[in-house]
Amino acid sequence: MSRDDSKKGNKASGRQGGNFRKKSYARGNAPIKKNTSSKQFSDPDSIRLNKYVSNSGVCSRRDADIYIAAGSVTVNGKPITEMGYKVKLTDEVKFDGQLLNPVKKEYVLLNKPKDFTTSIRDEKGKRHVSGLISSASKSKLLPVDKLDKEDVGLLLFTNDGDLTKRLKSPINGLRKIFHLVLDKDLRSADLKKIQEGVLVDEKIVKVQDISYITDAPKREVGIEIYSSRGKIVQRLFEQLDYKIIKLDRVVYGGLTKKDLPRGHWRYLTEQEIINLKMIK
């Protein structure tokens, strides 16, 4: 891993100029990409049936028309085949007997800055990451996992409970890459210990890769790990008597910080969502 790569996000941020630095993170920044997926129903009382089915995540709106015409969709127990049929949000809509939820699932990636908490609790005087993505959706989006207040890097938000549950405890762990700054140089002997596996809470922690950052002091390292254990990276280094001064999560489950300056957010692409849903 190179030092230049690890600082790409900060360089991108710097190109925004003085105006970017003056913006308040508490109000949330503009998205990197515009996407109409965050729009809610224009009519609060009714919605076209094909959009209702599409929003539930069953299929695209075009495919929904096909299923509706085939009689696969029922409203309040009755098959509906009429194109353009509108339903109320209080109606019971089923697809092949399965009850649907019309709230569109949304996915937002934030490059978290320092000094923002991810705790669900309302801590007085604390700046919360939810404020940074407040303009992304009218739905309540929650972070899939946590980063400490001092930590920076990638944080995924969604209202997709199934995906959140899957990412929190995948069978083979979730791929994450961190750029770390330690309180002292990492001894080569300890680097080798980490490569071979370190015992933390009676379980061996194995990393996919660990290396010194190119052209940087030996207290800066990059580490790739597949794990869903809470604060496992911090606990790993504590076991070897090191303290992490800075933690930057640069890769999360295949998502990267590319073109995403610190403090900014973007919507996931359709392909990125598909890739995450393939994680078991």
Automatic annotation (TrEMBL):
Alphabetical list of InterPro entries matching this protein: PsdUridine_s_RsuA/RluB/E/F_cat (IPR042092), PsdUridine_synth_cat_dom_sf (IPR020103), PsdUridine_synth_RsuA/RluA (IPR006145), RsuA_PseudoU_synthase (IPR050343), S4_RNA-bd (IPR002942), S4_RNA-bd_sf (IPR036986), TruA/RsuA/RluB/E/F_N (IPR020094)
SUPFAM superfamilies: Alpha-L RNA-binding motif, Pseudouridine synthase
Region feature Disordered, mapped onto this chain: 1-44
Signal peptide limits: none
All residue ranges annotated as the RNA-binding S4 domain in the record: 47-108
Record keyword Ribosomal protein present: no
Organism encoding this protein: Maribacter cobaltidurans
Classification via PANTHER family: PSEUDOURIDINE SYNTHASE FAMILY PROTEIN-RELATED (PTHR47683), RNA-BINDING S4 DOMAIN-CONTAINING PROTEIN (PTHR47683:SF2)
Pfam hit, one: PseudoU_synth_2
UniProt-recorded name of the protein: S4 domain-containing protein
Keywords noted in UniProt: Isomerase, RNA-binding
Polar residues composition-biased segments: 34-43
